Amino acid sequence: MNIQETIDCIRTWGEAKGITDPQAKGTPAGQLAKLQEEVSELELAWAENDKGEMIDAIGDCTVVLILLSELLNLKYEYCVETAYEIIAQRKGAMINGQFVKEAE
Fold first, then answer.
1. CA–CA distance, 4 with 86 (Å, rounded to integer)
2. Is 71 in contact with 11 (CB distance < 8 Å)?
3. pLDDT, tens digit, for every residue of 37-88?
4. E runs forming strands in the chain
5. How many helices (DSSP H) and strands (DSSP E) are in the chain?
6. What's the pTM value of the predicted model, to 2 decimals?
7. Which pLDDT score is estimated for 104?
8. CA-to-CA distance for 1 and 99, rounded, in angstroms?
9. Looking at the chain, which terminus has fewer C-beta neighbours within 10 angstroms, N or C?
């Protein structure tokens, strides 16, 4: 399965579970809370150097972002493409392990 097929399956799963079904009670606020939970799990996995849990948490964060974009009527792929178009042109430097963009 390619990444686009996987994204489409996630959308179908989210609707089937009532997360993004217009008649259900899924909300952007609920998905943002879920994203915070998944990021916390990623932080813990990283602290424990647990690669399997890091993979799971990164995947879970991605699933939540896909479903959040659906709730916001935004196309996930468009969001990612737009972000890349912006960062591809960005200049900056690595500072303390983090890329810091130049002031514009």
1. 22
2. no
3. 999 999 999 999 999 999 999 999 999 999 999 999 999 999 999 999 999 9
4. 92-95, 98-101
5. 4, 2
6. 0.91
7. 73
8. 32
9. C
